[in-house]
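For the sake of clarity, the format in which proteins appear in this thesis is described at this point. The fold follows as a row of integers, each naming the local backbone shape at the matching residue. One such record is shown here in full, so that the layout can be seen directly:
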Amino acid sequence: MSSKVTKEGIRKTAVLLIALGPDISAQILKQLPESMIQRITYEISNISYVEPAEKESVLDEFFEMVSARQYVLDGGIEYAKNLLNKALGVQRAKEVIDFLNQAKLRERPFSIARKADPQQLTNLLINEHPQTTALIMCYMQADKAAIVLSQFPLELQADIAERLGNINRTSPAVISRIEKIMEEKFSGLMENETESVGGVRTLVEILNSVDRSTERNIISTLEERQPDLAETIKANLFIFEDVVTLDKSSIQRFLRDVSNEALALALKGASERLTSTIFSNMSTRAAEILKEDIEFMGPVRLNTVEEAQRKIVGIIRKLDEAGEIILGRGDNDGIIL
């Protein structure tokens, strides 16, 4: 793929996500590789206006691709070609089919694991080597991986989590061999293309979905085995933007421990939803002062803002560990009234 095509594709993706709105776009972005997320979000940040004609064109193209993919799933390539030829014309239909064929080659491995029932996966993976299980979990939905991980013995949970957090890249040969094993056990067909997987980000997504006891067990074990990895994971388990998920009493509690200066820095450039949440949990006068502090602060380096946000997240997590506030977690960590 040429750089021109790549740049055009990034632009179209950015325009599409803007058109779809933040809620849907956030769900889409979570499924993409980190490198792609960075390029797309950078492009979005540099788009100040989208011509209606461009937005319409991108949405039309997206609809064509989604429809074509469904035609292929329903009746195969020939069936899709016939329908697309009638709807789009021969040339455009060929372009869409060619794109789908290329996209198919880039599909993530272990699709069978993403489709399988969690209990079936648990039964299958419980006797596999922890490294194998960690690799497969890299390609699974975080919530499904969380369910499976929670079913394993405590020691095995930590072992898999440790390996998951340390995976960076995996060779095509390893992917191919493990896929063949999965294919035999599930009688499914899978691709063997490799890409960057795993690491802290994948593990954090999974730990954010497991119940608190499972999280605590894994973190506690990792603190003994790999303290640096444990600290990195803890710092990413709850991010500053997640403040919007807290209840009012929890927000008001942590605000008592945060200085106005740190809060103003942390909110510099934050989403409107987050700033509104903070302001709504302060007195009118305090909110006005904070707004003025942010307004007159002037340009601030990104790493300064992020450092302020990390400090506030640290305060929140300490209050959570002390039982003074409640962070929403898995179903097994409910609240008793």
Notes: The chain has 19 helices and no strands. Residues 52-88 form the longest helix (37 residues). Residues 1-5, 188-197, 329-337 have pLDDT under 50 and may be disordered. Residues 71 and 130 are 39 Å apart (CA to CA).
